[in-house]
């Protein structure tokens, strides 16, 4: 599994390793380390690659993986991806696409379904994807303030003191932001906000 969001990788690895037919999950945080892991683990059956991880170019990144190991089941991942990005991944040799927005048990089922299918004509996509290259999500000025503080790791109480609001009001803003981004927790909220350009990576 190659993804630069360590919390997502750790959580999904634990979930996958609970299944009896999964012997081991090897983790990588960028494309270069993912390629090295593939060479170091020639018995790899399935490779899960985040479309937007550092160092991965579309479609060549997937094509390179396919060349190294022709028989591996190659699955593209993303929190929010455009149809164009998914098509490029499939063009490069991905057997399917899974959105990070789906539930854990659905994710495992999606991996199984993709692995059962043979041939590019049966490639499947699971979960929500954006229809356009850019995803438009509108936030109020106050929601943008809360987003910035969330990115800084503040708790509800800390944000309430900073903005002169009650913790209950902050909780409402956080829920509203999460609903707009389709996220279920704060980590996923920040990841998706970065992906849609609502906030920027800290320098």
Summarize the structure.
With 203 residues, this protein is of the alpha/beta class. It has 9 helices and 4 strands, in the order ααβαβαβαβαααα. Mean pLDDT is 81; it is low at 128-135.
Report on the structure:
α6 (141-151) packs across α8 (167-181). The chain has a four-stranded parallel sheet, with helices on both faces. The chain is elongated. Helix content is 48%, strand content 9%. The relative contact order is 0.11. The chain has helices at residues 6-17, 31-40, 60-68, 83-92, 104-116, 141-151, 156-163, 167-181, 186-195, and strands at residues 46-50, 73-78, 96-99, 124-126. The two termini are 26 Å apart.
Number of strands: 4
Output the strand order for the largest sheet.
1-2-3-4
First-residue to last-residue Cα separation:
26 Å
Report the average pLDDT across residues. Answer: 81
**SSE sequence, one letter per element:** HHEHEHEHEHHHH
Count, helices:
9
How much of the polypeptide forms β-strand, as a percent range? Answer: 5-15%
Approximate shape: elongated
Radius of gyration: 18 Å
Biggest β-sheet, characterized? 4 strands, parallel
Structural class, from helix and strand content? Answer: alpha/beta
Q: Uncertain segments of ≥5 residues (pLDDT<50)?
A: 128-135
- The proportion of residues forming helix, as a percent range, comes to 40-55%
